[in-house]
Each structure stands twice: as structure tokens, then as C-alpha cells.
Write a structure and sequence with these properties.
The protein has 279 residues and is mainly α. The chain has a domain of 194 residues: MetI-like fold (Orthogonal Bundle). It is 68% helix and 6% strand. Strands 1-2 form a two-stranded antiparallel ribbon. α2 packs across α10 and α8 runs antiparallel to α10.
Length: 279
């Protein structure tokens, strides 16, 4: 991939045969083909410099008279990279935590109690068919445009699908003989849910959470693209409008690497916590 990109970027910088140095008219052919979309190594170095450049952060400095004065100081913690990472990943993990917690609870209740299943299955199936990005206007008027918007987008986006996965796992992935044995030993329904069904469904829960990370990122970037003042979506929108592709490509690499790392980590959690699960 890197070699292919380098060849394409180089090809865009081959001198134009139709270039005439003597022709100074506005319509004269350029010396090289314009290369906005494929920056070279020098362009990426410049992008890295601007992304990691220390910028002003305000710190509170105590004064001899006991007062506190806010001063601007250059710091890495004010760089684009730091502020965007803190904003995006903080929003992502908060929204995922809320969505996963609600999805596990509701899914387990639906899978273990028939009245709850009868009451919630149709609404959950209906909500799962509504794209969360289509409900941005609803989120704007109900939760505003602050951090609650990003949490709501992620939580609502993953909630219906996660509920369905946990519900089906509780219904189909738990051997009936384990439930019968627990009943024979005198376990109550809550005991069966906590000691048998939840443990047997744990791999499904972790796998479902792993598969939710990608869609959650889509919802978060879409929301940041529209209303955020910091974060990956905001920076991609801003730099994309400026045709600053060196920063855009760098951020795409960071997003891909972080998503891959999360995926590998959750796979390892499944392998260690549920060694009996062979999928």
C-alpha cells in the first residue's frame, strides 16, 4: 500500500511535457500536474509538524497577593493530536459504556423473561431499522449539541442491535441441560440468570461489543463533523475543506490503528475469559 501510494504521488509530480517557461499567460500549462490529493513525504512531514505542534493552553498561576492569573503557555497538551484524541476517545468510550450497559441489561431481560420479550421485541426490531444519523435533528432538540449529543448518538446507534444479539445469545447459546441442572439443584430464576445464562452469554456480549465499535465510530465522526469544535470529525472536516490531505491521511491512520487495537484487545479478552468458546 505504501509503495503504491508513493508511485502514484511521484507520478503526479512528473514534469508536464507541455510546460513552456516562456509562456506567462494565466492559461499556461503548469510545470507539474496539481497534486492536492496525494502529498509527498515533505507534505506529510509538514502535516506531522502541525498536528503535533505545541499550542497555547491556559494555566492558572498563583500570584504573591493570593490571586490567580490565567496565562497562555505552549504545551503538547494543546496540540491538535492531544485535544482531538482526548475529545474523540472520551466521547466514544462514554457512549459505548452506556450503550453496552443498557443493551446487556435489556437483552438479558428479554432473553430470560417472556413477558419482557413480548413487550419489547417489536419496538427493538423497529428501532434497529432506523439509521441513527437520520435522527440527528431529534437529538439536537432533545439533548442539545454538547457532549450529551455524542453519547446519545453512540448509545442509541448500538443499542437495538446489541439488544438483539444478547437476547438471541441468551435464548440459543445456553444449553438447556445447564438450566435444567440448575433448577434441579434448587436455583431460582435470578440465580439461573446470573450463574448460568449470563456466564454462557458472556462471549456473545464481548463479541457484540467488539462489532459495535466500528458503527459507533461512524456515528461519532458524523456528529463531530456537524457540531463539534474539537475531535477527529471536526479536524477531518476542517482540513478536508482546506485540501490539507496530509493531516487527513494521518488522522485516518490513527483511527484505523486504534480501531484495530481495540478489536485485538477484545478478541484477547474473549480468549482469556471464555476459553470454552471456540468461535
Amino acid at each position: 500500500m505504501v509503495l503504491g501510494y508513493a508511485l502514484l504521488s511521484h507520478a503526479k509530480r512528473v514534469p508536464n511535457p507541455s510546460y513552456n517557461p516562456a509562456d506567462t499567460s494565466p492559461t499556461a500549462a503548469p510545470r507539474t500536474v496539481p497534486n492536492v490529493a496525494l502529498p509527498d513525504a515533505a507534505g506529510f512531514r509538514d502535516g506531522l509538524r502541525r498536528v503535533f505542534m505545541p499550542r497555547d493552553v491556559f494555566v492558572e498561576v498563583p500570584q504573591p497577593d493570593g490571586s490567580v492569573v490565567r496565562e497562555a503557555r505552549k504545551s503538547f497538551f494543546g496540540s491538535w493530536y492531544w485535544t482531538d484524541n482526548v475529545a474523540t476517545w472520551g466521547r466514544l468510550f462514554a457512549g459505548l459504556s452506556m450503550g453496552i450497559a443498557a443493551g446487556v441489561v435489556i437483552g438479558m431481560l428479554m432473553g430470560c423473561y417472556t413477558p419482557i420479550e413480548a413487550m419489547l421485541r417489536l419496538p427493538v426490531d423497529f428501532l434497529a431499522k432506523i439509521p441513527p444519523t437520520a435522527m440527528l435533528a431529534v437529538f439536537f432538540v432533545t439533548v442539545g449539541t454538547e457532549r450529551e449529543l455524542f453519547w446519545a448518538m453512540i448509545s442509541f446507534g448500538i443499542l437495538p442491535t446489541l439488544i438483539q444479539s444478547v437476547y438471541l445469545g441468551a435464548r440459543k447459546d445456553v444449553p438447556q441441560e445447564l438450566i435444567d441442572k440448575a433448577r434441579t439443584l434448587g436455583a431460582s430464576q435470578p440465580d439461573i440468570v446470573g450463574s448460568v445464562i449470563l456466564r454462557q452469554t458472556l462471549p456473545v456480549i464481548i463479541e457484540s461489543a467488539r462489532l459495535c465499535v466500528g458503527p459507533a465510530m461512524v456515528y461519532l465522526i458524523a456528529a463531530e463533523w456537524l457540531v463539534a469544535s474539537e475531535g477527529f470529525g471536526y479536524r477531518l472536516r476542517l482540513q478536508g475543506r482546506l485540501n490539507d490531505m496530509s493531516v487527513v491521511y494521518l488522522y485516518l491512520v490513527v483511527l484505523g490503528a486504534a480501531g484495530y487495537a481495540i478489536d485485538v484487545a477484545l478478541r484477547e479478552v474473549v480468549r482469556r475469559a471464555c476459553p470454552w468458546w471456540g468461535k
